[in-house]
Amino acid sequence: MQQRPSTTPEAPRAEIPTFPEGSFSRLGIRRRSPHPRSRWRVLAFPLVTLLALASYTEMRSAAAEAWLFSQLASHLRARLAPGPTRQVRYPRWGPYDARLGYRALPERLARLRSRGYRVLAQARFSPALLQTTAWGLPPPYSEKRRAGLRILGQRAEPLFERRFPQSAFARLADVPAPLVSALLFLENRELLGPGSPWRNPALEWDRLAYAVGIGVAGVGPGHRPGGSTLATQLQKYRHWPEGRTRSPLDKLHQMLAASLAGYRSGPNTLTARRQIVLDYLDSVPLAAAPGFGEVHGVLEGLRVWYGTSQATLRTGLGPQAPLAERGRLLAQAVSLMVAQRRPSALLLNDPAALQRATDRTLQHLAQAGVIPAALCQAARAHPPRPRSARPEALFSPTRDKAAQSLRLDLLPLLGVSRLYDLDRLDLEVAATLDTHTQHQVEETLSALTTPAGARAAGLYGRHLLHPGDDPARVLYSFVLLERNEGSNAVRVEADTFPGPFSVDRQAKLDLGSTAKLRTLALYLQVVADLRKRFASLPPGSLATQKGPVSASEPLWATEDPLTSFVRHEMAAHPKPSLPELLDAALERRYSASPRERFWTGGAWQRFSNFDARDDVRTLSVREAFRRSVNLPFIRVMRDLVRHEIAGPGGVLEALSHEGPDADALDRQLLARFAAREGATYVRRFAARLRRARPDRAQAPRRPPSANPLERFVAGWLRRHPRAMTAALLHASEGARLKAYAWLFRTRHRDAKERRIQEELERAAFRRIHKRWARLGYPFPTLVPSLATAIGASADRPLALAELLGVIQNDGRQLPTRRVRRLHFAAQTPYDVLLAPRPAPALPWLRPQVARALRRELLAVVETGTGRRAAGLFAGLLPEAQAARLPVGGKTGTGDLRYPRHGPAGQSLPARVAGRTATFAFFLGERHFGVLTAYVPGPVAAGYHFTSALATQALRTLAPRLVPLVAGTRAAATTIASTSAQRD
């Protein structure tokens, strides 16, 4: 039964009636279930409450973020493994990635592979990291605060190093406390504050909410405070295009990247947050200063923009420093923190605006209690004034010529246009240079340029320097290479030229009689080739030949002398071995008489010997080489020219085209001469007319001479004043042939023959040049003159050294290397290690030819012009060890003079352009090089030294070379003391 409600003050309590199951259906009443919205209304409050509590707890502790991001970051890894890989994705933008070279690594690696390098090891991305970077996020890793080019020597000794920024704090404890406090207050107040150790360094919720609210309210960007934390700013100016945030999606990506980077070492971010402060202080971009370049970091900014050093900052902001000094330095540092949002505008263009902004910021810091009021007033009393003038050099350019040469080599190798960009790459280069020996040689060569050093080295005397000569005018260069497995490694490369120019690799010098080595190599190689050509012929056919060539006969009159010699030797001595034939070729005799005139190089020329006593002698090729006598080698070169013209497969055979008659061949050669010489005159006339004033360019001050080509050029330039020289040459083809029509009709056979001979000689020297190029000759042409045999075509010391390496290696050429290894982006996700690919040795010379040349080079030192180098290591090494280091080489004296003529054609004293003394040498079985002494310019007319100066200088260097050449460093101290006693 139901009870009535009680009348007591208690609230009435009605009982809920119960009905049997199915009662509603029997009464026709439908039972209604609760509405879903009613359920959510019931659950909404507790859910919202729980969500709010969870959000609040998460905002305070960041536990969930720490777990989530640390788990994600643990899968974003890269590991270095042998060999190349495609399991890597390089950044596509970002100033940091561009400056350190990470962005250009794909193109750079392809370039290096095409230049003979191979990948030894490369970093591989994990699958998760590949996917993350595909979404546009940079890999989370410990980014380098300082990086740059580093070059190491053969034994990993530092040879060159650049690190940018050059000024940086080593640790956070080294940063003055006022700087840290001001930075955190302005940019990221809660970053190092008390709280959870799991805090996300990329988020500061109240600051972010305030920035979003201001943005929604539509406040202009000039007055809107940034919502980015320091961690997010690091990601932005390092890895995003132009260091900017272009959209809300960019901001989200930057925050995600900063979160992953913050948790890469685990959930606890305290160490990471402290590192973020240090990274920001050392890497924030602060514009580019004139004369210095990009400025990064507060410490470097203080040096560049205000001239404040780290030591000054550390003591000046200390508690014991005067208040005025503390204020001045604080104002400078705060100005850089303010300027980081618009560095170029404030530091370069509007210093007054920077001062106003700094003043407002200082007041704000004082009002918030970050700095004392007194310090604020002291800082405001010293408004910052960035230096507008070019700052002093914060680092001096390297004076190490070897390191400078290596840097210049790396520019084309890596496809970098400036040393400025090269020095900022995250790159370590392992070079082949022996740093210890390099420095020893540099010091010795520098000493030779002083009177005391030259005298101690014995550089004064007969064929050396005279007492009145200034040794400071003499430039010395030295290069030493070592043959290794698969390459010739440059161990020493030094010179005394005061600048970045490399004498060994960039100079074009008259190295005198060292050209006889190239001539002799070609001579013996031609003999070897002819033997191979005639080896299959029966002896009877070899004996059938034309008579010997007379010196007075034209070049094309009879069979060339070298072919005749080989035919005769092979007929007289059936099947001679190649060494026997080469020995016979070295015994061929030539006159040393200087009385003969030679038509060569388009003129009649005479040559002389160094020693007049040789003028009446007839010498073998061997003796002429050992004693470096000129005239026999002039005649050897003439025989080589005759061989290239009339020998098997020579110029005449190539021009014959199924054998035209002699007149047709003459006309063909004369037409070539007319076209070539006419082009020379056309260029000369055009240059003369174009040098005139513009109003006279079309109408010369004086009428053209009777020369028909000059009249043609003047008329053509009137009609085409802006045309290129190539168009003029094309238009003048007919005029050139017409101007030389007299040559085809002349009855003077001598004039024709001289011009025909000149064309044949030019064609022969083009063929000789191809052969010399195979021997490492570095220039694109040869002087078409017999004087090339004694140095007229010049040479380069390094190229000459490489020829010695070929001879030492039985005629096989190996590539010259200065770099053993390239290591890009070490200890980063883009880590890659490369080395030169082993290259096959190229056969430049036949082994028998190389051995014959090596014997002759040894004889030059034993009995010839290189006698000063004999016994080079005697007394420096034990006798048995010194015997294993035989010394061979070739000397050369270059006297570069240009003939001059007066207006009436009279001869004037020649213009002196330089003088050289050279010794190209090999030491033992693996080392070879060149030492050159060079006096450039007209002052060389007062110097009369010969190649003896170079060999004597090498004797002075010998004690410094022994530790390297002998293959031991243990004897270095003993050798140094022995050298001191000898000096």
Description of the structure:
The chain has 983 residues and is an alpha+beta fold. Helices cover 47% and strands 13% of the residues. It has 41 helices and 21 strands. Strands 1-2-17-16-7-3-4 form a 7-stranded mixed β-sheet. A 6-stranded mixed β-sheet has the order 15-9-8-21-20-19, sandwiched between helices. A two-stranded antiparallel ribbon has the order 5-6. A hairpin with a 3-residue loop joins β5 and β6 (293-296). α27 (621-627) packs across α38 and α28 packs across α36 (749-774). It is elongated, with a radius of gyration of 42 Å. Residues 1-19, 22-29, 216-225, 545-549, 695-701 and 969-983 have low confidence and may be disordered.
Radius of gyration: 42 Å
Second rung of CATH, namely the architecture of one domain = 3-Layer(aba) Sandwich
Outline, from the CA principal axes? elongated
Q: Strand pairing plus helix content: what structural class?
A: alpha+beta
Spatial strand sequence of the major β-sheet: 1-2-17-16-7-3-4
The DSSP helix count reads: 41
User: What percent of residues are in strands?
Assistant: 5-15%
- Low-pLDDT stretches are 1-19, 22-29, 216-225, 545-549, 695-701, 969-983
Q: Report how far apart the termini are.
A: 134 Å
Q: What is the fourth-level CATH superfamily of one domain?
A: DD-peptidase/beta-lactamase superfamily
* Range of helix content: 40-55%
CATH topology of one domain: Beta-lactamase
